[in-house]
Amino acid sequence: xxxxxxxxxxxxxxxxxxxxxxxxxxFHKFPEIGFEEVKTSQTVAEELEKLGITVTxxxxxxxxxxxxxxxxxxxxxxxxADMDALNIQEEADVPYRSQVPGKMHACGHDGHTxxxxxxxxxxxxxxxxLKGNVxxxxxxxxxxxxxxxxxxxxGVLENPKVDAxxxxxxxxxxxxxxxxxxxxxxxxxxxxxxxxxxxxxGHGAMPHLAIDPVILxxxxxxxxxxxxxxxxxxxxxxxxxxxxxxxxxxxxxxPNEVKVTGTIRTFDKKxxxxxxxxxxxxxxxxxxxxxxxxxxxxxxxxxxLFNDDKMTNLVQKTVAKVVGEENVKEAxxxxxxxxxxxxxxxxxxxxxxxxxxxKDMEKPVLHxxxxxxxxxxxxxxxxxxxxQVAVDFLNNNEQ
Length: 399
Ligand SMILES: [Zn+2]
Ligand SMILES: [Zn+2]
Prior knowledge:
By secondary structure, the chain is an alpha/beta fold. Helix content is about 35%, strand content about 25%. The chain starts with a helix and ends with a helix.
């Protein structure tokens, strides 16, 4: 049985490959950033409607949902793609280069969107054999604000109720032809912080009459480094990085205050909330010592992405049919990047996997880089894998 689907999915993926490539090129030429994916989502909706798939538009502004109803009753599987691009001027030498100044698909989301449309074409032809439903989610704004959470709030996990969710990312850190899965924590919570050290400005020549927020900021940042190096188990990965420090304008003036922003990355829920507390304690200690004041804000962004063991086992088995068992690997470590697929994974058993795109691991493809590019042929892997995962989830009783 399984082998039969494997063959069919391969044949159908080949049948729709050219169409999928053309769609990828179109998305790539006209990139749109988070919550502005108007043309992209219109194309997505139109392509789904052409197939006779039920479409709901404008979920979380620009999100689109397609529903393929299988002939037989069963479960509902969610497949997710993100549609947004980035504010980057493209420098890649490709014929389908971005036509929009300052905007670019530099993360591969054009491939996720086209690849899921390709999978939809494949699955739609198999619907008379499917037990249950496939919900196709095209979400906005993965890169910045996050489109997954508002789509869930607007009900995409209901009617019909979703039993499991899958998604993938084209990935520069993996050789082309390989797929990596990751059991458990797969991607970090990419939270942010902002703090202010409020001192008392004065003349640079007379520091004793001022409270210097520059020196206190330097001390605070230095002390915060030892939160990671001295206060956390070295086997628990975590990052504190500073993205901006702003204070003062003149060489001989001590400013009133200094503002700092940055990001905290964690894979552990306890650490996620302990680190900002420890940072604030440090800041409090340093500033109080010299009579300065402070403010400290921690903002939760996406949750930690936890892959469900059973669903990840299923992906592992399933994608082996696409790229061969020897090319499916367990990711050696979790990824410090964030991913708002995590919101789906919080609600239903889920697995998010990584499709390799680098031809030379000495010079791996860099995401969010002006020269980011990858070979169209990886679309075949994406559409085939997504279709196969859906079919195996719905029609196999292994889970
Ligand atoms: Zn990205
Ligand atoms: Zn991305």
